[in-house]
């Protein structure tokens, strides 16, 4: 055969690469023979082309080489079979393993759901990174910097006109309540007064009508679609409702100009209706003063402006434009709308955190619990796998390579992880409603395609991560030693396992201390004497009453059963929100401009709330001059620098009077912050909140009485009430949630760690059977043996405590420092955590070991 | 066990080639008799199936230079294969006999 007639090399290689071995020789031969014939009959080129053509025709299922794949598949099947047998043989061990991991994963999944939900807040805007809330910081004369989420109405025009980086701005009130009559009942709606740019800045779709009219006419109104549905029926969209004149409970008339889509629920904004801000200005002309900073101002920046630049640019926008005498410097800075929910705490004029801290805290806890569960899984798998040294040895003798063994162990761990994940998903699915209750959220658990993609990836990565150590450790064992002893226990691996146990208990101990601290602090908050008696007090509302009405309302209430005392106020005493710097007093230095919180009260506020007087006297309804007088708290007196405040003259917004009394400090803000200086003024105009103290044990009577009198005065309205101690607790919603969640986490961590310990002890007890037998034969008592076997673990626990306690101390002090009023981290907290862990661990250990220690040594000394 | 149309042709070819039935000759005779030129791949696929169904058996023959020193794989009808051919043939004949105007020629 001539040299040129050699078949094309590449085609031959192609055949080699895929064709079955048994076909190869025959086919290559046939093809070459054919090439020879063809090249003689036609051209060599045609023959080669034909050769290629024929080779490509071997791409048929029958011709493909399968051998390698089928081998692997067979091995893989064997791995699975062995894994399932192992599962069946060591049920409790496997169940502990799967269950531990499943609980850990479920726990983390819950937190993931929660975090995801938290992150969705305020994230609905397309240009979310450009919409910002305008914040103010004011530099006080005493060095403090106060931060406000509110700005002056005048700032809007300044920003719009003088700062080209502001594309749009909208100003809105904190809220506006209006009631409209529907079927002879007044239904109350919460809305806002907002300049009509509101709809564009917040990208609110208009479903009907136009908002343009709102720019011109202050007596117009836009309502949300759910408002429209309630008011006009479910077929409102087909009705011609634009232009309807709506009359509210204050007899104000509004023309309905638009219906907008309901605002997203996961938002710091909420409004069932929007009234032009111009309307609010008509009602409160002092809003147009630079002194009044009580409106929320939002701006939408133009594209490609960094927040830092915008802040630098706008910082002096108030100082440059306001006129009049102001001593205090007031600066402007921006917070992205998207951050408003999670970053809601300000200190010294900067954004310092807030809810985001809980998101981070819980994310960390979730990660730790997952790590805990993975370590557990790793430990258990390794412990169990060492018992399978004989199997590994035999496999190696039969020709298994390290890689094969690794794949076998990884397969097993992935399989176990798959079970765990499925169990975890089941747990989450079943428990989601309860968890939702715990964190005050509604979780809808739906399987999305993302999840379907995520679960296998998670199973694989988690399975490989937690299986990689046992896989590598076991595959590297020496054949001879593993076949001889049937066990393999190189010392260095024991060391690592111990370190992992220590690590597990460190996490558990930190979580226990954390949970105890949170529990203590929350209990402290709930039981703290805050300087007034908040129990048995019911808050309800009154509408549009003159001072005379208020007094008769009160007298009527007192005649009814169950009512001990009644007071009417403008602020909830435990959460006073109004502050002013318009205060003057005897001895005030010219530069002093301090902020004072203030509330208007009637003369019965102090006795009703059982607030103690430190000096002086309460307001007296018989002394008309008292309406010009003031009562302050101790903090206010201290800040004013008055040692004996009684009789000193004082003025608020120019209204001159005297200080006639000083109340002992009570907590007028949450325990996160210090008691604020407070001024009480006797002013019965504009009171709207009723605080009624019920006689002990007569809550129900008191409620009936309150509702009866309320209905006499406002028959068409709904009677709303809340208990003041509930309102107090609701100030600490996040803390209560954290308390419950930290307990859950702690219990999960304890369970996982103890499960791990249990399995490890069981394993080591089995390994040391022979040793125990010999010791017993030589005269060791049961307690000697118990001591011997448990001392190792006690040592590990002690090490864990030494590491965990300082960690926990620092972490929890940091958390407690977020409260101005907090408990001290006592040694007993740590002692309790340590003792609890120790006792549980001891219980678990002795449970396992006592069986061995008490057993007859003959049983396992028999064979050698 | 079924016998496909192309498989039957291949089986017939193997039978008619006697001792000299291997890839190249089978292909040649098929081309000669049917006028169609099956690809080697298709042919092999059929041979493979026939072998699986045990209609043919194989033996390895000597290597020749024109094959690049590779051995041939000879195919041969098994008794079962022969029986199968016979059955299909009889089936055809039983139909063909009853078709008026269809003349059956047999070569002696």
**Largest sheet strand order of chain B:** 1-2
What value does the Rg of chain B take, in angstroms?
Answer: 16 Å
CATH superfamily of chain B: Winged helix-like DNA-binding domain superfamily/Winged helix DNA-binding domain
Order of helices and strands of chain B: HHHEEH
Oligomeric assembly: heterodimer
Tell me the number of structural domains of chain B: 1
Q: Low-confidence segments of chain B, ≥5 residues, pLDDT <50?
A: none
CATH class call of chain B: Mainly Alpha
What CATH architecture of chain B do you see? Orthogonal Bundle
Work out the helicity level of chain A: 40-55%
Features:
heterodimer, A: 864 residues, alpha+beta, 4 domains, 7-stranded mixed β-sheet, 26 helices, B: 108 residues, Arc Repressor Mutant, subunit A, two-stranded antiparallel ribbon
Description:
By secondary structure, chain A is α+β, with helices and mostly antiparallel strands. Chain A has 4 domains: 9-63; 131-341, no CATH class; 357-522 and 740-861, no CATH class; 537-730, no CATH class. In chain A, the strands form 5 sheets. In chain A, strands 18, 19, 20, 21, 22, 23, 24 and 25 form an 8-stranded mixed beta sheet that branches. In chain A, strands 5, 6, 7, 8, 9, 10 and 11 form a 7-stranded mixed beta sheet that branches. In chain A, strand 5 (176-182) and strand 6 form a beta hairpin. The model of chain A has no long low-confidence stretch (mean pLDDT 85). Chain B is α+β, with helices and mostly antiparallel strands. Helix content of chain B is 53%, strand content 14%. Chain B has helices at 5-17, 23-34, 40-52, 79-97; strands at 56-63, 71-77. A two-stranded antiparallel ribbon of chain B has the order 1-2. In chain B, helix 1 (5-17) crosses helix 2 (23-34) and helix 1 crosses helix 3 (40-52). Chain B is elongated. The mean pLDDT of chain B is 82. Chain A binds chain B through residues 1, 7, 23, 25-34, 36-37, 53-54, 56-60, 62-63, and chain B through 22-24, 27, 39-42, 44-45, 48-49, 63-68, 70-73.
